[in-house]
Amino acid sequence: MDMLVMETHDIQDRLDYKRGKKREEQLRYTDVHVLERERGLSIKAAPMSLVLQNTKSKSHLFNILDTPGHVNFADEVAASLRLVDGVVLVVDVVEGVQVNTEQIIKHAVLEDLPLTLVVNKMDRLILELKLPPSDAYFKIKHVIEEVNTVIENTIPGRGESRRVSPEKGNVAFACSSMRWCFTIQSFAKMYSDFYPGPSKLPGFGVPMKGLDIDKFAMRLWGDIFYNPGSRKFSRKRQEEGSQRSFVHWILEPVYKIYSHTLSQSPDDLKDTLEALGIRLKPSEYKADAKELMRLVCQQYFGPALGFVDMVLQHVPSPEEGAQRLLQKHYTGPLDTKTAEAMQKCDQNGPLVIHITKLFNATDAKSFTALGRVMSGTATWPQSVRVLGEGYTIEDEEDMVVATVSDTWIAQSRYNIPVSGVPAGNWVLLGGVDNSIVKTATIVATKLPEEEDAYIFKPIRHFFESVFKVAVEPINPSELPKMLDGLRKINKSYPLITTKVEESGEHVVLGTGELYMDCVLHDLRRLYADMEIKVSDPVTRFCETVVEMSAIKCYASTPNKKNKLTMIAEPLDPGIAEDIEAGKVNIKDPVRVVGKFFEENYGYDLLASRNIWAFGPDDMGPNILQNDTLPSEVDSKILRSVRDTLRQGFSWATREGPLCEEPIRNTKFRLTDVDLASEAIFRGGGQIIPTSRRACYSSFLMASPRLMEPVYSCSMIGPADTKSSLYTVLARRRGHVLQDGPIAGTPLYNVRGLIPVIDSFGFETDLRVHTQGQVSLSLVFDRWSIVPGDPLDKDITTRPLEPATAQQLARDFVLKTRRRKGLAEDVTISKFLEPELFRSLKESGVLDG
């Protein structure tokens, strides 16, 4: 981004030796948060609108979101992907594809977003690894193939059309610190521009006569060889002295530029540069090596025209992008006038804006909303309807009318006020943030022909918030101030979750230690401006079952006129993941849902057509299935309580019976019902809590277990640190999955798994044991069953002593219940009918 900013903003003087700052320091233009400047890493996505020129000198408006690279802030990436029409993936040529890079590629591919690749930090091949050009080619090729492998694994059989390759024009090569970037097509044009007539290239002795740029570019990658002696290309290395064309025409000139600039005396360098048409001021030859190298590269490579051409060629127009966005994420029909206006990006159509991100104002008291204008024109002052994530046609509670007070074009460090922003562009809105929590859909107060308003789906993040701390003010009288601060961090961070436990404890959930550190900094210094106490970090858990319920469990309504019978059992492997990935939608027609389960999991027709709900929400990893027989149950009466049964199921799966953590990977089968014939006796007040109790009792009789989140960890360091990595990981219940060298480097990449609850302080521990030589990435990977039975009362844990493997589940449940202010142990009799409980005790199924 700094390179593009430097090309479009007149800020060169700020980089001079001013106020003691050296010119080689990074501009970091889009890092505006105080922690971003202090720590040297991006925390927030930063929007910018830039006018960039292509190789034909035609200007184009680019809307760009510069997203954080650290894996903890992947929520910013997910929020950004909803607004864009394409992705430019920047990969370090030395380190290659890492865990966070893999997740971003997968998410972009599943969103059907075109992917372009920038292989960055090319100078590391020359200055750090000191690879010869021929070896550098293989290193670059290896990085590109790593990206293609992830794409192919994400969409098996369909990855070929999404491949990235320099020949296709969707791969660029760059060194952002030296501010240069090119594609093989733009490099071919450089030859054409430098030597338009029959002249000779320095050092090659090849005459350039009427160069066909496109044909030349197609020969600059892959297994195509060039022989300077015969001046011929071939697909096989047939002659001595021939080498790959990419090495000969691109890498060797780049290597020569670096070697001459860094090794020659000023007088010799001046002659060399002038032969290339590069002219520097006499004072600039006296600059330090980095600055001199940057000046030379800027003149040699010129502006990033190849990058602009690449994006223009492979990223679709806003109109094409809008059609993809509507098909994937719009909840309304696509044949209405409003939908048609959105597909055409009609600036005269009804106003619709998709909001995905909130940015705090300079005073941190209010927020501005970043969104994409889907149709119409955003102006101010303008009265609009703000539709929240919970808005539906049937329930309009999550809707408020607000007035747009300002419209801006976001430029990261500053905003440009404008009178209106037409469809197809991004806009920053003021005055509409009060009712927005994460995302929203803004529509005109009146749509054509009294059409119903529909929303865009909430963002589904590819990571989960599993890192949890409790907060409280040091001064109790400042509790209202802290609550206001918690509401603001909930708006500011897309994946942050705040809630209040039954004990009154205020809990904050995030993705990891660094993420939570930034959140708490903003809470203390930016939004609440107060001192707070923070508990030791813990983690979220989930509850599940490993067997089918030992008996059919029934529950009667409080008025004793209705009875529900259920069985709980584990879901088939893969179903929970498919539901969460959106591969099946419970709102689809029954036939569509049924077909998915028949084809993928072998469900019979009756079972597949009677899946009533996923829980706790429409993409939740649990199933409610109607397993009653039409011959035994009045179907009409059963349908009348279907919605209330679902609500009870949703309530139960949101807070399980073990420690009020969400239930996961469980199917609840409704096997029998006995319902009152009069509707007044089977209302929601009777059915909902009874449905919940039936779910709980069947769950507790199905060998319940606790699940914990597990991180996938990627550790990169020298080979001699491997033994330390294994030791530190094993001490924390972790294990290594694979390890191997990073091609072309002295580094090793060790990948493994570690439970989140044992990962606190892991990075510090790792750095201490390896003298800071290892970098670590932790990514949420899966849910894993905790060893041991959480209901085994024979297990006793002692204070200040670590629990053994078989004590862990019991230990976690007891501590979680205490922390939440619940009773010491799970009381099964609370959920079972008295007569059922007595019979189970007498038969020995339950202990006394």
Automatic annotation (TrEMBL):
The keyword Nucleotide-binding applies. Its main location: nucleus. Pfam families: EFG_C (PF00679), EFG_IV (PF03764), GTP_EFTU (PF00009). Residues 1-199 form the Tr-type G domain. It is found in: Nucleus. One of its GO terms (cellular component) is U2-type catalytic step 2 spliceosome. Coiled coil: none annotated. One of its GO terms (biological process) is mRNA splicing, via spliceosome. InterPro entries: EFG_III/V, EFG_V-like, P-loop_NTPase, Ribosomal_Su5_D2-typ_SF, Ribsml_uS5_D2-typ_fold_subgr, Small_GTP-bd, T_Tr_GTP-bd_dom, Transl_B-barrel_sf. Gene3D superfamilies: 3.30.230.10, 3.30.70.240, Elongation Factor G (Translational Gtpase), domain 3 (3.30.70.870), P-loop containing nucleotide triphosphate hydrolases (3.40.50.300), Translation factors (2.40.30.10), Yeast translation eEF2 (G' domain) (3.90.1430.10). One of its GO terms (molecular function) is GTP binding. Keywords: GTP-binding, mRNA processing, mRNA splicing, Nucleotide-binding, Nucleus. NCBIfam families: small_GTP. This is Tr-type G domain-containing protein.
